[in-house]
Amino acid sequence: MARTAKVLFDVPEIKKDFPILQRTVRDKPLTYLDSTATSQKPRQVIDAMTDYYSRYNANVHRAIYELGEESTREYEGARERVAAFIGAKDPMEVAYTKSTTESLNLVAYGYALKGKRVQKGDEIIGTVLEHHSNHVPWHFVRDLKGVTLKYVDVDEDGRLKMEQYDDLITKRTKVVTVAQVSNVLGTINDVKEIAKRAHEVGAVCVVDAAQSVPHMPVDVRELDCDFLAFSGHKMLGPTGVGVLYGKKEVLEETEPLLGGGEMISEVHLGTAKWNDVPYKFEGGTPPIAEVIGLGAAVDYLTKLGMPAVRQHEMNVTGYALQELSNVAGLRVYGPKDVRQRGGVVSFTMAKAHPHDIASILDVEGVCIRSGHHCAQPLMDRYDLAATARASFYVYNDLEDVDRLAAALQKVNEVFG
Amino acid sequence: MGSGPGPYQAQILEHYKHPHNRGTLDPSTHKGHESNSLCGDEIALTLRVDGANRIEDVRFDGEGCAISMASASLLTDAVKGKTLDEDAAMDRASVLQSLGVPLSAVREQCALLPLRALRAALGPAPAAQGH
Ligand SMILES: Cc1ncc(COP(=O)(O)O)c(C=O)c1O
After folding, report:
1. If DSSP codes are grouped into helix, strand and coil, which group holds residue A148?
2. Ligand 1 pocket, residue A131 CB under 6 Å
3. What is the pLDDT of residues A336-356, one digit of tens each?
4. Would strands A369-371 and A148-152 be described as parallel, antiparallel, or unpaired?
5. What ipTM was reported for this prediction?
């Protein structure tokens, strides 16, 4: 098949960095197309974590001895690199959490529920395309504080109906929250504009960046968002570590989620004073090895260059959209223009259920996801029970897309 | 019809493409509705049980993958004409055995959805139903 598309990276070289991509599945090469769920990890990340455990494992911040100084240096060094990676002004605006989910819960609990800014009768504006982790924490706020939740809709191509913000945002709006990239449709949302609209009424803008920070350049000062959440495991890093970025002044107004060691400056019987931002959010022994692994992942991505990562994914995604359009009965969801979407392609097939598509692809060594992708409100919006979803990252190339397309032809043979 | 890859053996595809006992019984004496939270698949069972505790007729309706739909087709065939006592012998093992293909843990949930709907309709089986 003639390919007019080109890839930017030397993908066979990149694949060599990922031990798991050397393995086979049922004697077929592994074609991993589920990085939206979790990415694979390069040797550099695995080695950084092993190195910590084998050479300088010690708790951070409290040890007087050399090992503890080394672990603290690496733990804080990673914070500086993460901050630089997202354009934060100050590393102290980066708090480590467990995941995007924990980061969003921390904002909902610490800023909206326990903080003073959001009061009964106020409004929080979300969208229908959010992941469950950016829906359910706000349900808690509504149930416990009596706020109203409102949602911006999407059009048939999966783009937010931006004009709805005109009516939905009012003087009572205190939080406007949105995913920068949809994990189902791939839609890239205009966060900068949404933050601007939020600020016009004095509301904060909370960004779920789980699918943007790993895949494109993100600059929090350029976006001017107030909070931004993402997960290490979706950006070549380990599970168990996430990030909550917040502007210094809004983090000051946010209460901690976990009480315990590390997050206090003083404790007496019955009372405690919080430590400074961001330490007040990091109660207990943190995931030290994971933070160090995240630092190594940031280094790996920085070396590739995020503008190049984005361009590479656009090339692969564009090719995938073209190849999938040749599969009979296949329908793709989300924006048609690759400039408006990330490397996520959700689709259905006329004759096969998404579960069956994924099972047949599995036999071919091709890993994709099927289901509601933790976005049931979005599925309801399009009246779908499930979709199949392929997603791309730095280690995928046009051959992976060819294997996907060939396996999808098999699906039609089985169910034809 | 030839066999497909993995679990897509001829019997499964045959029951998926041409399901038995599809539809809704009206009137019915028992109803069960279950969904699979992983994928949103749904199955609704309607049954008519006569005075002698015999399952006179049964139908299933719903949206789902080939595994859950074929399983529903096979299960409804299996219980039709049985007494409620005999029905109680239908369990996880017998359902998986009737499908006769290897399934991963996630796909087992698809296969067992119709059985869950049956239990929802008729109540838990007295013994057997370990997990
Ligand atoms: C858009 C989006 N938000 C939030 C999450 C939740 O991430 P995590 O499970 O790492 O907390 C995901 C993960 O699938 C996601 O895609």
Report:
1. strand
2. yes
3. 999 999 999 999 999 999 999
4. unpaired
5. 0.85
